[in-house]
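Structure (tokenized):
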């Protein structure tokens, strides 16, 4: 935020008052000139010397804004419908800069901080209203524990880390093989702590590769992690179709290495992040995640602890997902590319998905596969139109939408459970347990034995190394891919 700017806080509740108090202490960020609120009991009064104006729809249009003025929406419990209404009002009032606090799941005990605000974007206005989870309460199972997040620099992994700050873990290990992404989340978490967000866990960044079994065994022997959230994976479907051996080596063998070490060194909680693309997979990526699910469920039988799988669909705004792609296409004037007019996908915000994953880690029972209730699937064409309008353009008139055809490994619709799986309600909102009907299970050890000489050179079977045709044949013969 710029020095000397005028700030309007939308919402005079606990979160808004927290922000105003913090801004007053750090005058360099500007001056809060008013709260805007719809509560008739607050309108016309002052809070810490700051007037409360309202109703928002009426008063916002009377405010004479200038380019430096900024609105901060401080209503973390606001519904998507209300946020859309607020956004439209504030844009009409000529606010060029609109910031927002994260969803209620990330605001612990009403304790909001300025550092948590960020520029509003379409992802805040899309999808259904997120479930409200008492984060500190749901994370009680990691209090005083050593927690490892793999893929900690990725979209899901980094959000898990942000929310885990509130759990009271003694140590939070950030594992990834990307130097820059681990550097960024490590820096962000320390900054959040410095500004009073979360608790004082010791944060330790770790650069490493799960594909190396000796390294994984060594690092787990040193970390002695009580809980592991396994988010690391190659996941870009078309790219992985072009690099099928790489995705098997990274996702499958990496997960096997991690599970072996977790069992060996006494990890008590292992939560594996899976995907709807693992359901009757038609892509190599989906097949890799299907195999990973079986690996985790097999390890659960040996652990006797709390090894679970949590499966869900797309998350809004993750790296490599459709929303950032559409945004970049719009910024250069289009066209926006959609594979097929009838393509549909499930969508959930990253923060809600991670809150539910963390909840499932605490309440899940060993050896179970859980799915997150994603609501109704969204038509990708409709999503493209919403994004175009959000940026102030009209679809087809200003920005064209082009259909480019289905790419290898893609399908029109995704499903969260297979024909031989039955979703059952749990005691927890939007978390479902999968009951598997009787079916012939894959021989996981036999399958791994066939995959390893393809991924790692074996002098006794040199013809197998990086042999893509052999890999695809193995996956089809083992009913791991249905394309």
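Design, position by position:
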């Amino acid at each position: 935020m710029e020095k000397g700017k005028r700030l309007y806080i939308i919402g005079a509740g606990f979160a808004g008052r927290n922000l105003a108090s913090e801004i007053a202490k750090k005058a360099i960020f500007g001056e809060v000139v008013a709260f805007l609120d719809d509560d008739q009991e607050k309108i016309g009064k002052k809070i810490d010397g700051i007037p409360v104006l309202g109703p928002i729809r009426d008063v916002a249009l009377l405010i004479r804004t200038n380019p430096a003025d900024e609105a901060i929406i401080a209503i973390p419990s606001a519904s998507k419908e209300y946020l859309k209404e607020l956004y439209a009002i504030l844009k009409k009032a000529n606010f060029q800069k609109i910031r927002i606090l994260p969803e209620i799941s990330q605001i612990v005990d009403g304790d909001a901080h300025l550092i948590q605000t960020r520029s509003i974007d379409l992802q805040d206005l899309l999808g259904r209203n997120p479930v409200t989870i008492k984060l500190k309460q749901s994370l009680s199972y990691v209090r005083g524990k050593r927690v490892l997040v793999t893929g900690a620099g990725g979209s899901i992994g980094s959000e898990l880390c942000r929310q885990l700050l509130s759990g009271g873990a003694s140590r939070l290990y950030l594992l990834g093989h990307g130097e820059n992404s681990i550097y960024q989340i490590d820096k962000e978490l320390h900054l959040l702590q410095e500004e009073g967000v979360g608790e004082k866990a010791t944060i330790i960044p770790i650069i490493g590769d799960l594909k190396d079994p000796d390294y994984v065994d060594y690092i787990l022997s040193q970390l002695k992690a009580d809980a592991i959230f396994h988010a690391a994976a190659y996941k870009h479907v078309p790219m992985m179709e072009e690099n099928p051996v790489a995705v098997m080596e990274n996702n499958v063998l990496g997960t096997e290495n991690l599970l072996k070490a977790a069992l060996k060194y006494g990890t008590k909680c292992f939560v594996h992040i899976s995907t709807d693309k693992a359901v009757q997979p038609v892509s190599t990526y989906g097949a890799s995640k299907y195999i990973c699910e079986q690996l985790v469920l097999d390890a659960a039988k040996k652990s006797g602890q709390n090894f679970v799988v949590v499966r869900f669909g797309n998350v809004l705004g993750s790296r490599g997902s459709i929303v950032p792609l559409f945004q970049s296409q719009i910024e250069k004037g289009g066209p926006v590319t959609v594979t097929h007019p009838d393509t549909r996908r499930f969508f959930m915000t990253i923060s809600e998905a991670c809150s539910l994953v963390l909840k499932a880690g605490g309440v899940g029972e060993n050896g179970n596969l859980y799915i997150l209730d994603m609501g109704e699937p969204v038509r990708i064409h409709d999503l493209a139109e919403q994004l175009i309008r959000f940026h102030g353009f009209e679809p087809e008139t200003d920005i064209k939408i082009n259909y480019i055809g289905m790419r290898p490994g893609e399908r029109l619709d995704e499903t969260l459970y297979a024909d031989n799986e039955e979703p059952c309600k749990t005691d927890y909102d939007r978390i479902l347990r999968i009951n598997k009907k009787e079916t012939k299970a894959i021989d996981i050890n036999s399958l791994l034995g066939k995959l390893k000489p393809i991924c790692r050179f074996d002098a006794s079977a040199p013809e197998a190394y990086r042999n893509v045709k052999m890999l695809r044949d193995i996956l089809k013969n083992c009913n791991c891919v249905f394309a």
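Reviewer-requested clarification: The chain has two domains: 6-120, 138-436. The longest strand covers residues 269-275.
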